Amino acid sequence: MKKLVAILVALGVVCLSLSAMAQAPAQKQQVPAQTQQAPAPAKPEAAKEEVKTVTGEVVAVDTKANTFTVKSDTGELQISATAEQLKGIKKGIKVEVQYVEKEGKLVAKSIKKVK
Questions:
Q1: Is the pTM of this model over 0.90?
Q2: Are residues 106 and 99 in contact, defined by beta-carbon separation less than 8 angstroms?
Q3: What is the DSSP string of 86-110?
Q4: In percent, how much of the chain has pLDDT > 90?
């Protein structure tokens, strides 16, 4: 009888310890943290801008809006410029304009009169 009690007590201890282990939160295996790639250094705005060139005749100048329109072989472009850049620019003259696109608008970098 003592053997039977000892076996039952041993089984009880084993069952209790197994149930306690089953309810304990499982330890997650620690996966080494992946090294994050450093973001590429920001390029200056000028590097992103693609400078384009158009040559054509000035067909309109709007000094209030600081814009002018150039008619070239490929069509007409309305380009924004500074008041300083627009000095001497008149309808009918031929120009070579270097420009970039900023915020959906064409912006003159340089305006040269050509013959």
A1: no
A2: yes
A3: HTT--TT-EEEEEEEEETTEEEEEE
A4: 56
